[in-house]
Amino acid sequence: MEFRTWVTADQLEPIKGVDLSVVPTHRAVHEPPPARWGWVQRPKPGGRGFTIHDHDCGLAADGGAELGIDEALDAMLRPGAEACDRCDAAAVLVPMLQLGQGYA
């Protein structure tokens, strides 16, 4: 199982008695997420389902229902829901749901 998260060097500290030298780390290839992370739910063209975007996604620029993380995860469990793959929505929400076995 793999879990990814964004942290800064200031957020990391050793865990007493745990050797973390074998944990693979990678520098982010894009900007880290904003300090306040919000989501936007936008209807799909044709009105069949909806897409969840991060609040900075260009595809969410025209607005939509603003969601917190719990609301976005709940929305992703509804029929017709998808996470945008042009922003961080798919990279963040889908793995979170898979950890909870809530996404097929």
Descriptive terms for the model:
104 residues; alpha+beta; 4-stranded mixed beta sheet
Descriptive overview:
By secondary structure, this protein is an alpha+beta fold. 18% of the residues lie in helices and 15% in strands. It has helices at residues 69-76, 89-99; strands spanning 39-43, 50-54, 65-67, 81-83. Strands 3-1-2-4 form a four-stranded mixed beta sheet. Strand 1 (39-43) and strand 2 (50-54) form a beta hairpin. It is elongated and about 55 Å long. The mean pLDDT is 79.
Secondary structure blueprint with pairings:
Layout: E1 39-43, E2 50-54, E3 65-67, H1 69-76, E4 81-83, H2 89-99
Parallel strand pairs: 2-4
Antiparallel strand pairs: 1-2, 1-3
Report the strand count: 4
Helices and strands: which structural class? alpha+beta
Strand % is 15-25%
CA(first)-CA(last) distance? 16 Å
Provide a compact summary of the structure.
The chain has 104 residues and is of the alpha+beta class.
